[in-house]
């Protein structure tokens, strides 16, 4: 199987969504199941309802999975595996206090060395362990050999024994640490390939060590995706609005367009505009760039505009509050100057709202409104224009400027003749 393993600790980040999309595509290519594993063992950081939000986002993007698992439900397996490691002398009880460990960390920092646990408790005699009433953690014994990982993007990656210390697998409260729970759960679910962000690369040798120490012989493959950078060339964080999937959706970016863009960056697809289903035919993990991908909101807007253009008129109209082909075609006209559904609504809503006419055109506008109200229906714009011009006596700037404000609620925009084509059946409602 493959797995998407988010934590219910906040809004979904675009990096997490990208991981979910890639897992979905590869699961379809390999004809293997995709599971969603909610990693909820860190009770203090969990936010109620975030697990449902995650599943709602996956549904919105058409990401199918076979089942949802909660990591906390595997607690008995985490405990059993920890006991097995102690029984097999692959792990040990550590009685070092937090204060003592902090002291050691600070000393390493002052010496400008990376901190590594010094194995102070690794070889304690059994009688000292049994008789010790102090709180303790459980640590796995550090590796003796090089750990080699096969990565579809990074290639073969080696971790020397000095790079991995005897790290904690069970806390003092006997809850599993992230790496231990993750490694055990991947074994339980028979995971074949782990696709995740490269910020997890430091976790990979730890999880491999856990599996090796438990005698798990299956080799799990990896694909660590390069991070996504913001406009400043730094890793996108929660401070970047565009990092939040929720924010992008609220701004009016379509799920298909967001997915299109996240597959596109750091990749060389056969065409620029596509959906997830099409990507299944040509997507190749090994062709993902090793370099970080820069998030370009203008490029996303361009892709979003193209997806909006591809919608049929009635569906497009729904994004601006209608279910009408003509309003959909009108919205398509405005796509020349709008790239999101939010921007489109800001163009369409003023057409049907109370108009604010600049003072210099207010007198002309009053005359024109009365003239339009008493005018017959005209199929063609030129016939409508000529009739209103003749009946009102207005011309030039005193005619065209008020007409634009009355019909669109704006001083500038697309050609009025083009707009009239789709508004002619609404003229009475617009000028009422």
UniProtKB/TrEMBL annotation:
Q: Which reaction does it catalyse?
A: tRNA(Glu) + L-glutamate + ATP = L-glutamyl-tRNA(Glu) + AMP + diphosphate
Which InterPro entries does the record associate with it?
aa-tRNA-synth_I_cd-bd, aa-tRNA-synth_I_codon-bd_sub2, aa-tRNA-synth_I_CS, aa_tRNA-synth_I_cd-bd_sf, Glu-tRNA-ligase_bac/mito, Glu/Gln-tRNA-synth, Glu/Gln-tRNA-synth_Ib_cat-dom, GluQ/Sye
Q: What class of enzyme is it?
A: ligase
**One of the record's GO molecular function terms:** ATP binding
One GO cellular component term, please give it: cytosol
Role: Catalyzes the attachment of glutamate to tRNA(Glu) in a two-step reaction: glutamate is first activated by ATP to form Glu-AMP and then transferred to the acceptor end of tRNA(Glu).
Give the protein name, as stated in the record. Answer: Glutamate--tRNA ligase
Which organism is this entry from? Candidatus Sulfurimonas baltica
């Amino acid at each position: 199987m493959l797995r998407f393993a988010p934590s219910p600790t906040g809004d979904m980040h675009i990096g997490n969504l990208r991981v979910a999309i890639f897992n979905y595509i590869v699961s379809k290519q390999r004809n293997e199941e995709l599971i969603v594993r909610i990693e909820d063992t860190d009770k203090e950081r969990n936010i109620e309802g975030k697990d449902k939000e995650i599943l709602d986002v996956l549904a919105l993007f058409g990401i199918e999975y076979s089942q949802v698992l909660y990591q906390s439900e595997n607690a008995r397996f985490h405990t059993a595996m920890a006991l097995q490691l102690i029984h097999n002398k692959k792990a040990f009880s550590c009685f070092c206090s937090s204060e003592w460990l902090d002291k050691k960390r600070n000393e390493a920092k002052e010496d400008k060395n990376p901190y590594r646990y010094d194995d102070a408790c690794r070889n304690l005699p059994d009688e000292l362990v049994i008789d010790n009433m102090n709180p303790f953690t459980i640590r796995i014994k550090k590796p003796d050999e090089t750990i080699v990982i096969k990565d579809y993007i990074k290639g073969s990656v080696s971790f020397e024994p000095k790079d991995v210390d005897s790290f904690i697998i069970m806390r003092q409260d006997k809850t599993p640490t992230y790496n231990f729970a993750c490694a055990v759960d991947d074994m339980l679910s028979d995971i074949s390939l782990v696709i995740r962000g490269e910020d997890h690369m430091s976790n990979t040798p730890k999880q491999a060590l856990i599996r090796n120490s438990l005698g798990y012989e299956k080799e799990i493959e990896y694909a660590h995706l390069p991070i996504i950078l913001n406009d400043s060339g730094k890793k996108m964080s929660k401070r970047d609005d565009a990092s939040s999937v929720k924010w992008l959706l609220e701004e009016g970016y379509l799920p298909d367009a967001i997915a299109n863009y996240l597959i596109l960056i750091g990749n060389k697809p056969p065409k620029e505009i596509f959906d997830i289903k099409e990507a299944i035919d040509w997507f190749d993990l090994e062709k993902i760039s090793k370099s970080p991908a820069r998030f370009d909101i203008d490029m996303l807007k361009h892709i979003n505009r193209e997806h909006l253009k591809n919608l049929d008129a009635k569906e497009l109209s729904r994004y601006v509050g209608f279910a009408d082909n003509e309003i959909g075609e009108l919205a398509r006209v405005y796509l020349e100057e709008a790239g999101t559904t939010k921007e489109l609504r800001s163009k369409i809503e003023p057409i049907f709202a109370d108009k604010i006419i600049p003072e210099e055109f207010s007198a002309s506008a009053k005359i024109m409104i009365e003239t339009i109200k008493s005018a017959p229906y005209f199929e063609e714009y030129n016939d409508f224009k000529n009739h209103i011009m003749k009946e009102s006596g207005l011309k030039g700037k005193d005619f065209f400027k008020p007409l634009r404000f009355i019909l669109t609620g704006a001083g500038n925009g697309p050609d009025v003749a083009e707009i009239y084509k789709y508004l002619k059946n609404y003229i009475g409602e617009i000028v009422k």
